[in-house]
Each structure stands twice: as structure tokens, then as C-alpha cells.
Amino acid sequence: MSNEGLKSYAIVADIGGTFAxxxxxxxxxxxxxxxxxxxxAAYNTLESVLLAYKEQHKLEEIRQVxxxxxxxxxxxxxxxxxxxxxxxxxxxxxxxGLTKLQILNDFNAIAMSLPVLSEQQVVHIGRGYADPNxxxxxxxAGTGLGVAFLFANHKEYSAHAGEGGHISWGAKTEQxxxxxxxxxxxxxxxxxxxxxxxHGLENLYQAxxxxxxxxxxxxxxxxxxxxxxxxxxxxxxxxxxxxxxxLGSYAGDLALMVAAFGGVxxxxxxxxxxxxxxxxxxxxxxxxxxxxxxxxxxEIPTYVITAEQPGMLGAAVYLKQSWTE
Length: 325
Description:
Distance between the termini: 24 Å
Shape: globular
CATH topology of the largest domain: Hexokinase, domain 1
Radius of gyration: 21 Å
Structural class: alpha/beta
Oligomer: single chain
Catalytic activity: D-glucose + ATP = D-glucose 6-phosphate + ADP + H(+)
EC number: 2.7.1.2
Strand order of the largest sheet: 8-13-12-9-10-11
Number of strands: 13
CATH architecture of the largest domain: 3-Layer(aba) Sandwich
Mean pLDDT: 92
Keywords: ATP-binding, Cytoplasm, Glycolysis, Kinase, Nucleotide-binding, Transferase
GO molecular function: ATP binding; D-glucose binding; glucokinase activity
Family: Belongs to the bacterial glucokinase family.
Number of helices: 12
Number of domains: 2
Largest sheet: 6 strands, mixed
């Protein structure tokens, strides 16, 4: 490949606490290939897994890299929340001889993917139509609960992630009050992440078992999902129903906060697996149930992201935006 051709290629990655996903991307058309998934535990450093990927696919000449990482990016030194990697951005760039190294929060990356997702990569839930120039919200339940906002500025976009998963949760029904009191015995602070995550689904399962005075041993979220989908366990199905109700309320609050007429997007690994139970849930009704502003939220569309690699795609969009400046 010529030096001129190399300029249009980059390496992008989506790095979580368990897996690191890498791809080569053509920044001209955002087409990704050479996708690989590595176990973070198998590598001592981020540098070592990035070098292993470049060597595996003979991409040593690519000098542009964008990494979406599941932790706050607050300065030059990055300390991953759920993995043992710690590194300096400037040192990593120098050691690898890169011309460009972009490090961004994983939900900032997902937010940056929203404008380029196709209709086949999202599922529209309920009513409302997106304003392409409107503010967008993305939230995702997985290992934790991530939140980010995307703001349009002419043909460019600016993504801002925070720690919205740690906002205090408030009960809205008698059942939710029971759940709150149950969790308050376990946690000093009952945040939305204590309910809207894999561990949160496990909390809901245990709390509802206690509410119905049933002895249920703790089981992982994956098993709760399987039981709910197969209709084999009323407590598992109730936990999923409660999960969707709380998710709808929270998504609706975020929509109100920034007037998200560009849409609210649900990411993460949990909701796509439960898509068959979403239509019968309270998700959309709780999203719209905002008193005097119910009509306001009724106009805001909600979507579930079904794209396989939105984090890497968003990292590529972020890099392309700076590449063309």
C-alpha cells in the first residue's frame, strides 16, 4: 500500500474491562475489517495488545489510532476502571511512533456512532421522529450503566459523557419502594447503576423474590435473561419487567434534561437480548409519563442499537472528524 493510501487507514478499538476489540478502518468510507477480539487478562499492558494486533495483521505502518475505553478520560494518564491497565497517552503515542492517537470514553464513542448508524442497526420503539440536528442521548446497560450526549454543530458533532449511571434512583411505585428499601440495606447509595446493569438485574431478581417471599439463590444476569425469555420463572420475568420500567423512566428524564429531539438510544449488551419482551413492557409508557411534559416526551423517539460494534464505529467517526479538519 502506498504512503498516500496509508493516510486513509487507521486502527480503532473498543476496550472494556474484559475484552479489547480491534479493527482496521478506512476513514474515507468508515468500512471496518480485520476485526479481532482479545482477552484483556492475557496482556499486561494496552501497548502489548495493540502491538499484537498490528503484528497479527501486518499493520505496523498505520500511524493513526483511536481507542474507546471504558473509563473516564481526565488527563494524560488513563487508569482503567475494571482492568489492570494504566498508561500515559503521550508516552504511548511516542513509543508507538504514531502521528495521531485519540483516546475517548467508550460512551463518547458510541454517541459519535449515532449519526452514521443505518436503519438496519437500530430498532425504533414507540412513536416520535428524530430531528437530525437535535440533541441525542445514548445510555447503555451492561457491566455498568453508561450515559453520553451528542450535540450537532453544522456538519460536526460533539459528544460528552459523564457518570450519569451514578445518579440517585428514586422509587415511583410501592413495589419500587420495597426494592429501594431492600437495596438500601446493601448499599449506602442506591444509584441507577444498581438496577440498570447486569448486576442491577441480579439485584432486582433478589429484591422481587424477597417481596414475594420466595427463596431464590443468587443467579447471574445471563440466567435471569434466559429464564425470563423462556417464561420459566415468574420472578425472572418480573425482574425484567421492572428493569424496563425503570429504564423507561430514566431515559425519559435524560430526554427532558437536554430536549433530546434527536432521539434517545439504548446501547449495551442487555436490552438487545431482551427485545422480544420490550414491546409488552412499560418502557415507552414510563418514558412518556412526565406529567405536564408528557406530550413533550411523546414527540421524542427511542431506539435500541443492534449494531455489533458501535464503539469502534464511533471511534472511527471521531478520528475521521479530526482527520478532515
